[in-house]
């Protein structure tokens, strides 16, 4: 068997082998590198890891010397750094949402933290679009991708679908100051919506996403996001509260 593997490797042109390795994702590339000495050397080549690094962090190469070497080490260092940053945000959101809901101020702070940490789209996909994470963290990642990274909605939708979280739901509730009419202020209005992550990337959830992005400003004086009730059948309802 070992002899057969050696024969295959000798028969495989180096450029073809390099193209095969270059088409793989990181985990698959590392697995292939463990197959033999030949693949270990090829899968550790600078050209492959340079491409992987620049693809995941497009803005990184502008701050590096053109003759930079050791791209695998750079990739691994960046991965550990971004994993640590994401863990901070995960811990913050989970702490704020111990009761099952999070205030919009804390929600927006989590997004601002992601922005200051400069997480890439691939980082968000890897660390925040996990099915087992609290859906509020999925939502934070979605919001960050749309408004901070300015990713097209269909790109984000594809990643959510690939992670099987596109149907995860949250409950968004916001309170609006009552309007003035003929010198009198009407009662404050409370809007309550059950919305999926998919809805937020389509016209169906456009208003809710706008409320989350603006937060408690102008006529909206409070916004609360919580884990949705899967038994809820109505998508949106509006009720009147005491002014």
Automatic annotation (TrEMBL):
Matches recorded under SUPFAM superfamilies: F-box domain (SSF81383)
- GO annotations of cellular component type: SCF ubiquitin ligase complex
Q: Name one GO biological process term.
A: SCF-dependent proteasomal ubiquitin-dependent protein catabolic process
The record ties this protein, via InterPro entries, to: F-box-like_dom_sf, F-box_dom, FBXO4
- The F-box domain sits at 12-52
Q: Which Pfam families match?
A: F-box-like (PF12937)
Its protein name is F-box domain-containing protein
**Lineage of the native species?**
Eukaryota, Viridiplantae, Streptophyta, Embryophyta, Tracheophyta
């Amino acid at each position: 068997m070992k002899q057969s593997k050696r024969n295959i490797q000798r028969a495989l042109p180096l450029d073809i082998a390099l193209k095969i390795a270059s088409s793989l994702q990181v985990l698959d590339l590392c697995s292939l590198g463990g197959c033999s000495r030949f693949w270990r050397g090829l899968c550790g080549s600078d050209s492959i890891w340079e491409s992987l690094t620049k693809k995941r962090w497009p803005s990184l190469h502008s701050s590096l010397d053109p003759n930079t070497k050791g791209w695998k080490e750079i990739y691994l260092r960046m991965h550990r750094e971004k994993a640590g940053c994401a863990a901070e945000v995960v811990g913050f959101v989970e702490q704020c949402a111990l009761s099952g809901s999070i205030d919009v101020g804390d929600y927006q702070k989590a997004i601002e933290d992601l922005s200051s940490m400069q997480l890439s789209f691939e980082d968000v996909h890897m660390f925040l679009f996990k099915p087992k994470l609290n859906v509020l963290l999925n939502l934070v990642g979605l919001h960050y991708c749309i408004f901070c990274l300015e990713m097209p909605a269909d790109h984000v939708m594809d990643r959510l679908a690939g992670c099987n979280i596109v149907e995860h739901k949250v409950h968004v509730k916001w309170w609006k100051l009552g309007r003035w009419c003929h010198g009198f202020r009407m009662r404050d209005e409370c809007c309550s919506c059950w919305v999926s992550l998919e809805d937020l990337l389509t016209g169906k959830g456009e208003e809710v996403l706008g409320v989350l992005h603006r937060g408690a400003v102008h006529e909206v004086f409070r916004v609360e996001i919580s884990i949705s009730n899967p038994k809820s059948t109505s998508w949106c309802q509006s009720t009147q509260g005491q002014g």
